[in-house]
Design a protein that fits this description.
- By secondary structure, the protein is an alpha+beta fold.
- Helix content is about 30%, strand content about 25%.
- Strands 1, 2, 9, 10, 11, 12, 13, 20 and 21 form a 9-stranded mixed β-sheet that branches.
- Bound molecules: flavin-adenine dinucleotide.
Length: about 425
């Protein structure tokens, strides 16, 4: 039903849209329904759709398979505005996180999205962890320009609220938390204000790049996508398929992004996605009362940042996420059997934790491009974000492996997509 409504909107839009000035050829695409189709209505797709809708004379559709935006990974995370302290300076994760953090704080201020600059302590309990903190300190101060400071033992004792940091604590001063739902509502509102179309309940089930003369084939001389893209959207199980056209397509489908990628590329270039679930446990006791985020020092080779303590905007404590490799991206039940392991991790830095007040809360799923991929840039097997115009095609920007810090990076990723399509920041 909603997909049919969206189809009507596509037709409406195609009657009213204007010619574009993209920096790639767009022969037959002049008749496309939309200038841009963004697949995936998570925080990243919303940020991109909003960014592209700022392009004068453009028309953008955001296509989401569920009946609301932001119901997958973007609403199942720690809601932390990361400072960008973990990744090497040349990685997209570092660049987009640091830029994204500044853009996010500014957007929150401008549009009243709730957030708090909590700061965060990274705590070390042994020599190896201390060395890990020293590497982060050097990276931040010498290469990234991200503010951090050592917290003295005396200060840990006086202001630590029961936190143990036997081998030292490093404070990240620009870390914060954000209300991710308000952020997504804000981005959706800004997008729709700029005449963007949100097509809900619209799973993309097929995509075909067009070249002059019709759907791309080996006999065609112009690159696939040079005449735009055909996108098939299902109207529910066994339902109709609606087809729309767009000059450009952005794959921001999160856990569905590899499936979308595989709809376009030949079999030899298909990819596989791996899933690392993160289980969270809520904490209902009023003591110890903690007012900042607490993270253990990163462990070499770990696929996450360690079972940490985060706060929501009401000051409630939750612990997580751990790392549990699973086969099914829809397996989002919290695995209660992992509580004992989480307790052991938490007690290392918060010995006074009341373990009877910990209960399974929710889980999120990390889209991993490699099995057991590591989290820190210095680790072997580190997987960076992929945000690129795919070679051999026109007008396709592909986003893969947008795990943490994707929420923090979302606005900077959107800027980057704008640059990839238009050659400059289009804000
Ligand atoms: C446990 C955990 C903790 C995290 N903590 C943080 C944190 O504290 N800070 C931070 O910065 N980042 C964090 N992240 C990362 C962050 O949550 C993600 O990077 C971010 O939410 C990704 O947004 P997205 O829009 O790419 O993906 P998603 O939110 O998954 O959105 C993708 C959308 O695409 C839609 N879709 C998929 N396939 C199709 C299709 N075929 N047709 C139509 N629609 C489709 C989906 O329904 C979904 O709505 C965390 C991630 C996890 C898993």
């Amino acid at each position: 039903m909603l997909a049919r409504r969206a189809t009507r909107l596509f037709r409406l839009s195609s009657q009213t849209r204007h010619a574009q000035a993209l920096n790639f050829s767009s022969t037959a695409a002049v008749q496309a329904d939309f200038t841009h189709a963004v697949i995936g209505g998570g925080v990243v797709g919303l940020a991109i759709a909003r960014q592209l809708s700022l392009q004068p004379g453009s028309s953008t559709v955001l296509i989401e398979r569920h009946s609301a935006v932001g119901t997958e990974t973007s609403s199942r995370n720690s809601e932390v505005i990361h400072a960008g302290i973990y990744y090497g300076k040349d990685s997209l994760k570092a660049k987009l996180c640091i830029r994204g953090k500044h853009l996010l704080y500014a957007l929150c201020d401008k549009h009243g999205v709730p957030y708090r600059r909590t700061g965060k302590w990274l705590v070390a309990q042994n020599h190896a962890q201390r060395e890990a903190l020293e590497r982060i300190h050097a990276l931040c101060t010498q290469e990234l320009g991200v503010p951090v400071r050592w917290v003295s033992g005396k200060e840990v004792d006086e202001r630590g609220e029961g936190v143990l940091a036997a081998a030292g604590a490093l404070e990240s001063l620009t870390t914060g938390i954000v209300d991710s739902h308000s952020l997504m509502l804000c981005l959706q509102g800004l997008f729709e204000e700029a005449s963007g179309v949100v097509a809900l309940s619209s799973p993309v089930v097929g995509i075909r790049p067009l070249s002059s003369g019709g759907p791309s084939s080996s006999s065609s001389s112009s690159p696939p996508g040079s005449a735009g893209w055909e996108i098939d959207v299902s109207d529910g199980p066994g339902g109709d398929i609606s087809t729309m056209t767009a000059e450009t397509v952005v794959n921001a489908a999160g856990l569905g992004s590899v499936a979308v990628h595989n709809m376009i590329v030949p079999p030899a270039q298909r990819k596989q996605l791996f899933y690392a679930k993160g289980n969270y446990f809520s904490y209902s006791a009023s003591r110890p009362k903690i007012s900042r985020l607490i993270y253990p020092a990163p462990e070499p080779g770990a696929s996450g940042l360690g079972t940490h303590l985060t706060l929501d905007l009401a000051g409630r404590i939750r612990f997580g996420p751990d790392v549990e490799w699973v086969d099914d991206p829809n397996d989002l039940t919290v695995n209660a059997s992992r509580l004992q392991q989480a307790v052991a991790e938490i007690q290392k830095y918060l010995p006074g934790v009341d373990t009877s007040a910990l209960v399974p809360d929710y889980a999120g799923m990390r889209p991993k491009l490699a099995s057991k991929g590591a989290a820190s840039a210095t680790d072997k097997g580190f997987e960076d974000f992929i945000v690129r115009k795919e070679q051999g095609y026109e007008g396709w920007v592909n986003l893969l492996g947008i795990e943490s810090p994707g929420l923090t990076s979302s606005l900077a990723i959107a800027e980057m997509v704008g640059r990839l399509l238009y050659g400059q920041a289009n804000s």
